[in-house]
Specification:
The structure is a homodimer of 109-residue chains. Chain A contains four helices and four strands, in the order ββαααββα. Chain A has helices at 19-31, 34-40, 45-59, 80-107; strands at 2-9, 15-17, 64-67, 75-78. In chain A, the strands form two sheets. Chain A has a two-stranded antiparallel sheet with strand order 1-2. In chain A, strands 3-4 form a two-stranded antiparallel sheet. In chain A, strand 1 and strand 2 (15-17) form a beta hairpin. The longest helix of chain A is centred in the C-terminal third of the chain and has 28 residues, at 80-107. The termini of chain A are close together. Strand 1 (2-9) of chain A pairs antiparallel with strand 1 (2-9) of chain B, so a sheet runs across the interface.
């Protein structure tokens, strides 16, 4: 079976968006906050925060709306830009996977 | 810029062929022997030999014709099956890369 992976880099060869970034955004969306997502992904809060900062900087887009306060330490929701980004990435990912399956079915190895 | 990676796994989820396997075959073809290729790739001879055995077993195809003997310790040439395999893998790789570039140009992130 053929497997595929896609990711986006900027002109400097730095990672902009890939499976790791997607997973972070999906987990924040599900968990409702950076700290809960970091816990879920067994990642340090600072490490995840750093990745989010880099992601926003390299995309030139804000991906989270952070709501501070409360005993729970605040929540985060994805921006519309982030939701569109996720949809586009999933779409290209699926398309590429299907293209690869078709090519592999056709010619094999 | 979008980047892609493809690889083939068997039904047991074991790696059959990917960029690493391609690199090994290409290097053996260029260097003329497993030992020279291992040296070039800074890999142990036994490690490379193990990877080649696994590759052949999982593909169900012989990839090398080993010619023993001589002071140089013998040479290895790729089988026609291996050459076809390389061409097919490169073809799918290029096709997928192009498909991804087109999709990314079209919808972006």
């Amino acid at each position: 079976m053929i497997h595929t992976k896609i990711w986006i880099e900027n002109d400097q060869g730095e990672m902009v968006f890939g499976a790791g970034q997607l997973k972070i955004l999906e987990t924040i969306e599900n968990e409702g906050s950076i700290s809960a997502a970091a816990k879920k992904m067994k990642m340090g809060y600072r490490s995840m925060w750093g990745k989010l900062k880099k992601m926003e900087q390299r995309l030139g887009k804000q991906v989270l709306i952070r709501k501070k306060g409360g005993a729970s330490g605040g929540t985060s929701v994805l921006t519309p830009d982030a939701k569109i980004l996720i949809e586009k990435f999933r779409y290209i990912n699926q398309k590429i996977n299907l293209d690869a399956e078709n090519a592999f079915d056709e010619i094999g190895l």
